[in-house]
Write a structure and sequence with these properties.
By secondary structure, the protein is mainly α. The protein has a domain of 29 residues. 66% of the residues lie in helices and 0% in strands. The protein has two helices and no strands. It is flat and about 35 Å long. The model has no long low-confidence stretch (mean pLDDT 90).
Amino acid sequence: MSVDLTEIEEAEVDLEEWLVEQAEDGIPEIVLVGLLRDYADDIEQLGYVPRMWGESDR
């Protein structure tokens, strides 16, 4: 499955905006980094992004 470069850029902008919103809401950056690492590890292990995250997925 090929992904359009525009889609990648849009996803990057969306993620950046979400991270900024979280930081502005007082979530410490170290917590955000930890969350991103945990999700990246899960996705790497599964080989895909689950369409629903549940206790059994973690």
